[in-house]
Write a structure and sequence with these properties.
Number of strands: 12
Helix content: 10-25%
Number of domains: 2
Number of helices: 6
Strand content: 25-35%
Distance between the termini: 38 Å
Radius of gyration: 19 Å
CATH class of the largest domain: Alpha Beta
Structural class: alpha+beta
Shape: globular
CATH topology of the largest domain: 60s Ribosomal Protein L30, Chain: A
Length: 239
C-alpha cells in the first residue's frame, strides 16, 4: 500500500531556515519526503525583489509582446539558457536542463513584489537535506510543470536523493511474455504527483508530504538525481 500524508502546521520558511530541523520529527528510514521547491528556494534565499531588477532590451520587448512585467521577464531570462517559445507564454530551457514555463520563476506564494527562483542545484539540495534527516529517507524536491500533450499541470521531481528516478523495464516481459522496448516508469515524478494530491490545495500551507510504500525504490546511495529524468536535447522533439 502506498500512503501519502501532508505534514500540517509547518511555519512559513525564510532565508537561512533549517529545513531538516523543521522536518526531523516526521521522518524515518524507507520513506520518501516530497517537498515543494518553493520551501527549499526560500530557505536557500532564491528570492529576487522586483525593485532590484533592471530589465534589458530583450526583456522589454518580450514583456510588451506578452503583456508581462519586464522585471519579471528579466528574472526569467537570467535563469534561462534558451527561450524555446515566446508565444502567449515563455517556454524556457533552464541551466538545469528543464524545459518549463518561465524557467520556473514564479510569484505564487512569494513575498510581496518578489519572485521565487528554482534552487540553484536541486539535486544537491535534496542530497543535503537527506543527509541531515533522521533515518536518511529519500528526498524529492517537486515543482508543477505543464505537459506538451495534456492540459493542466502535474508535479514532477526537479531534485532527487535516494530514490530511483526511473524503473526501466527495457528487456523485461509483460504478462503475455512480450518483450518490452520502451516502458520506463518515472518513479520520482509519480511520487511527486501523488504527494501533490495529498495536500489540501496550493493554498493550504502544506509544502511537505511523507510518502510510504515505495521502499523498494529507496536506495542507500543518493543516486543520479533528477538529471536522469531530463531528456537529451537531441532526443527532444519539442526543442
Amino acid at each position: 500500500m502506498i500512503n501519502a500524508r501532508a505534514i500540517e502546521g509547518l511555519p512559513e520558511v525564510h532565508p537561512g531556515d533549517d529545513l531538516a530541523a523543521l522536518l526531523a520529527e516526521h521522518t524515518e528510514a524507507g520513506q520518501v519526503v516530497v517537498i515543494a521547491h518553493k520551501v527549499v528556494s526560500k530557505a536557500e534565499g532564491r528570492i529576487r525583489a522586483l525593485a532590484g531588477i533592471e530589465p534589458g532590451a530583450e526583456a522589454e520587448a518580450l514583456a510588451a509582446k506578452l503583456g508581462k512585467d519586464p522585471r519579471h521577464v528579466q528574472a526569467v531570462l537570467d535563469e534561462s539558457l534558451e527561450i524555446v517559445r515566446d508565444e502567449r507564454v515563455l517556454i524556457c530551457r533552464t541551466r538545469h536542463g528543464f524545459v518549463c514555463a518561465n524557467a520556473g520563476v514564479d510569484q505564487s506564494n512569494a513575498p510581496a513584489d518578489s519572485v521565487i527562483l528554482l534552487p540553484a542545484d536541486p539535486d544537491a539540495s535534496a542530497r543535503a537535506l537527506r543527509a541531515a534527516l533522521p533515518g536518511r529517507p529519500a528526498v524529492v524536491i517537486a515543482d508543477s510543470f505543464g505537459r506538451a500533450w495534456r492540459l493542466g499541470q502535474c508535479d514532477v521531481a526537479i531534485g532527487i536523493a535516494g530514490l530511483a528516478p526511473v524503473d526501466d523495464w527495457h528487456g523485461r516481459v509483460d504478462r503475455s511474455g512480450r518483450r518490452l522496448h520502451a516502458t520506463a516508469i518515472a518513479i520520482a515524478d509519480e511520487a511527486a504527483a501523488a504527494a501533490d494530491l495529498a495536500r489540501a490545495g496550493k493554498d493550504a500551507g502544506e509544502p511537505v508530504v511523507i510518502v510510504s510504500g515505495l521502499e523498494r525504490f529507496v536506495t542507500d546511495e543518493d543516486g543520479p538525481g533528477a538529471a536522469a529524468l531530463v531528456r537529451g536535447r537531441d532526443d527532444d522533439l519539442f526543442l
